[in-house]
């Protein structure tokens, strides 16, 4: 079997596990209803307002930084497999690339973006 | 300090103290474990003699106890755990006398403050250390301490040894196993 | 080399048996089914074993005994847990985002099974072997976080929501470090195919072959891998003390069981990948020229080597987990962005230099060359 | 003291000054605020520490007894009494503008006695639900269960804080203010939460993960102990104090016993005193160990929690053998102790001391120097000395801010004058200072035990006490240093065998009331950690 | 089935107290009889359930501390497979009510109980949770958790020692082991219904065995 079909098999394995498991559980497990069961649990008290409210998070800046570096990873992986063959040219070219990104990180650091508030 | 130097020395001091923490858990991994294994250790388990679990009323071989039904324990109990009911019985001489009918104690309500034992003028009730008390039914926790058919012990008999009762701290004699057993029996009868 | 206990023979025998007796279509189907069953069985057994081992080791670190009343030393404790959780009610919560709520466990489990599939447990015991193996690992393992995010978001619960947000930030950060650390090895071995990476470590494990930069990458991978699996001291998304149960607060029964299972499996997967990539995978200890020694080592089957090495890493992960307090989100992100990432970037360059100048162990001592 | 009397008379000439157990000043409600202000602003000896605020019902009038002390000299105490005869709509003046500690106390008085305080910005009921019928501590409270039936209906928690303010012209204006903004992201931390150390309910407005505002909501374990005391004889009350702050059960009970003994003039035998103090210190160690363990657990170190409880178990073993209780030890009784020590007591305690010292070193290696732990504690939850005093935070938490408030030093009781020990003070005021204070106090407690354990005198353990104890008419007050801070008992007696009013000063209440201040602008994670460092016990707050 | 057939490791059936109540439960459950295959399956499932009771500590006061002590090194709840303390009621099997339940806490207790997933059990630990204990006469204390929710096992003590707690948990294991999961038959747990009011309608909630619906 080739890799792709094996991949499909493994994917199926994962799906089977969940489907079979949940199916069995739904079949076997007892059910009960009462007037508070379906409400969200928040330390035993009714929750105040909805939880899907505008929620200020400091995560976005990190996400943008992540994007920057994640794209870099995509470039680096092909490069890393052939770096032995490419020799010094490979090193120098990617060095420039990394330095630019590193400067970006340093800039962000200096600007205080990496400080969690 | 040079920020670069600070940056790297920070890494190393942090690593150093982290390893100190790891060492503590590592040592603990090989030490003897302190766990006491109830119920496997039931035969060897030592519960302190002074541990207060169940209130019981010692009965001697003639099925006699020392309770005069004076009700002092009931009055002194801070939350009404004890109920003493008594009958008035006329004895041969024609004098009315109070006789214990039921001494009811609620295990599920008792706070084990020991006041009833301390104040009991005739040393009729004591706590034992039989800690296994969990029940399925709330009503099973209400014990009648006096056995059916038991009666008041005549005075001047040789009394059974008194278990430790608190402020009379000098008499440290643990409740005997037999007496503990009696306490359990009481409840089974009830 | 004689390898009496290996399963390669069995596998190829089965393969020829099916091919010779059945039409190619049915042979493929049956082989596929066998692989599926094997993967599932391995997945379930490893999960149950890990749950037991973790509880036991945790207890030993805490000078307790751990489960010991079911079977000898309590070894079937996790079976009881499995039965229990299978028949536990699955609560239907009002006002959740229904589709996402029920899809979340799928993502988590499928992601971990997919990653599980690429691990070489021993010689010939690898389900999928893409030539871009490392990228595959990074790609599929990051599906799991979608599950966590969905679970937290869809639950309509504030604790879950905060847990999910935290895990999002945590995961995207540490994903980078894990990727860069693995990339360091790719630079060293020149390939991304997992089987080839293992093969290239016949006489010198990558962590020794690439010495300083490889060791740094190894440590960084362990830290970031640990963080990616959301386990203490990086267990912020769950943070029992703060968020009751974090992103899976509202999940009950087997749905919660899947999160629980995946958490343990992910711990195994991270250790397994670290073993494969840095510690020679299923390769036994080999010394060029010592044929007698090598033969003895080969007698020990490859999967035993693999599980032994993985076990050591798992133990280490538990050791760390039960020794340290939980990090705060800003410390966590600081650690990644101010320490691990810059060090990683420099580390890659150092590795390239080491490789290009021929300073790896294999280059310096050709005796280690496979 | 005459100096103080001058100041009082300067501020309020009509004040009635009596020298009772302590200096007692009685004033009209209108004059309360100027009087307290004068005391507060006294340069040489500012009475800036509000020990206790006791709501009273004297049947003909409703009032409050304030107990003040000075951060400069804790041994100086002064009681201020004010009362109103209006039982329908009792109004008094608030002192929250000077003493932050008064805030929650005044709310409690409102819930219990119905007295409302003018100028207190938030006059919601504390401890009881907003729709509770009647005021329990009033003598005419109707305890009919049908008035307040048990329900499983979830009660709305109101965000609206009623208040009565006095404007410039002296008119009273009733108004209602919102506690939270309209679009705040409010999350309930507690009551059923693993890290609130009980059933505390913090309603927390978050801004991202940063705590914007905290509303303390308590009463989920309010058992009405103070009211119950009024119908019980003195020996019967004793067992209730154990259940206030159950971690320092023995010390609480010590306070109550001393208060009764002082009033009834009972001399406690020396042997009993020794046993009491040793047990108190052991109790303190166990309390601090659990606080340490719980704090570590709040910071995510489960293993540290197990270690702490493991060491604590050795203390509990000693308790178990001595008085047959592990947590609730029932040791002190009026006039002495209930149980004499067991024969191996000294041996066990002496074995424990070096063991504990060794473990303290291990704790330092394991947690105190851990960089993650340091990052989570140093400079987190800063509380200045002024804050500690105005919120009346005592105990290791208060001393972590440099507030010298150890009752054992400033108002020595029992044997504490005879033993030599240091008051552990740090001035940083952060979580780490409080954390280290506890570990250091364990060391000091071991030191105290070492000095006493060998010379426990022979003799009686119980003084002769009448079977029925009646305290002479008057007000009695006794404080001790409990595990969390200054714990005090106030008894007002009318000469009966029941007390007329009993009030317990709860150190944990102060620790909780300062939480909104020190947690502001900290992360949610740190909020939990700070809670751990303050080490409050909720049943102590709710009583 | 006889009560002596319910086996608990290291603690013989005769040494348990209150066998009579358990026997009464068993008789009630076996009134209609079951077939053998289902009986075996039931046994297996009950074995799993009894040995994997994950607790939710509804700890309000002193007893909560003893519960923590029971979970720590000296007593170690983990030996029973119960150390996985779940803070979310959704994932817990067993609610340990440890401490006083007061009027203000009553609705919360009910809510947390309601939000637990079936099958669920409740243990009342300590005098307060059984009957109100020391505070039985107080105006603000509910006299026992069983006024709000059904309780399976009562563990007396104030607070009970960890061994007492373990004994109670073993009793609970016995109770779990006699149930018939497939017959959908469970012991109807007694509770005092006259105080349960539905907040939506204001009517008294009818108490039925939720499980049988």
Topology:
The complex is a heteropentamer of chains A (117), B (190), C (370), D (543) and E (213).
Chain A: H1 3-28, H2 59-86, H3 88-110
Helix pairs in contact in A: 2-3
Chain B: H1 3-30, E1 54-56, E2 64-65, H2 72-76, E3 82-90, E4 96-106, H3 115-119, E5 126-128, E6 142-144, E7 151-152, H4 177-189
Parallel strand pairs in B: 2-7
Antiparallel strand pairs in B: 1-5, 3-4, 4-6
Chain D: H1 2-11, E1 16-19, E2 23-27, H2 29-40, E3 49-57, E4 62-69, E5 77-84, E6 91-93, H3 102-113, E7 116-118, E8 160-166, E9 172-178, E10 185-189, E11 201-207, E12 210-217, H4 225-229, H5 234-241, H6 249-264, H7 270-298, H8 302-323, E13 332-333, E14 336-337, H9 345-368, H10 371-377, H11 385-390, H12 395-400, H13 407-410, H14 431-453, E15 474-482, E16 485-493, E17 501-505, H15 507-513, H16 515-518, H17 524-534, H18 538-542
Parallel strand pairs in D: 2-5, 6-7
Antiparallel strand pairs in D: 1-2, 3-4, 4-5, 8-9, 10-11, 11-12, 13-14, 15-16, 16-17
Helix pairs in contact in D: 1-2, 5-6, 6-7, 7-8, 7-14, 7-17, 8-9, 9-14, 14-17
Helix content of chain C: 55-70%
Number of strand elements of chain E: 4
> Sheet bearing the most strands of chain E, described?
4 strands, parallel
CATH topology of chain E: Rossmann fold
The major β-sheet of chain C equals: none
Strand percentage of chain C: under 5%
The rough form of chain C would be described as globular
Order of helices and strands of chain C: HHHHHHHHHHHHHHHH
- Total number of helices of chain E: 6
Number of structurally distinct domains of chain C: 1
Question: What Rg of chain E, in angstroms, do the CA atoms define?
Answer: 17 Å
Q: Mean of residue pLDDT of chain C?
A: 83
Counting structural domains of chain E, the number is 1
Spatial gap, N to C terminus of chain C: 15 Å
Q: What helical percentage do the residues of chain E reach? A: 25-40%
Strand content of chain E: 5-15%
Shape of chain E: globular
Known CATH architecture of chain E: 3-Layer(aba) Sandwich
> Quaternary arrangement of the chains shown?
heteropentamer
Calculate the mean pLDDT score of chain E and round it: 78
How would you characterize this protein structure?
The complex is a heteropentamer of chains A (about 120), B (about 190), C (about 375), D (about 550) and E (about 210). The termini of chain A are far apart. In chain A, about 65% of the residues lie in helices and about 0% in strands. The radius of gyration of chain A is 25 Å and the shape is flat. In chain A, helix 2 packs antiparallel against helix 3 (about 90-110). By secondary structure, chain A is an all-alpha fold. The longest helix of chain A has 28 residues, at about 60-85. Chain B is of the alpha+beta class and about 190 residues long. Chain B has one domain (about 55-190): Alpha-Beta Plaits (2-Layer Sandwich), CATH 3.30.70. In chain B, the strands form 3 sheets. Chain B has a 3-stranded antiparallel β-sheet, with no helix packed on it. Chain B has a two-stranded antiparallel sheet with strand order 1-5. Chain B is elongated and about 105 Å long. Mean pLDDT of chain B is about 75; it is low at about 170-190. Helices cover about 70% and strands about 0% of the residues of chain C. In chain C, helix 4 (about 100-115) packs parallel to helix 12 and helix 10 packs antiparallel against helix 15 (about 330-355). The radius of gyration of chain C is 22 Å and the shape is globular. The model of chain C has no long low-confidence stretch (mean pLDDT about 85). Chain E has one domain (about 5-210): Rossmann fold. Chain E contains 6 helices and 4 strands. In chain E, strand 1, helix 3 (about 60-70) and strand 2 form a beta-alpha-beta unit. The chains are: A mainly alpha (about 120), B alpha+beta (about 190), C mainly alpha (about 375), D alpha+beta (about 550), E alpha/beta (about 210). Chains in contact: A-C, A-D, A-E, B-C, B-D, B-E, C-D, C-E, D-E.
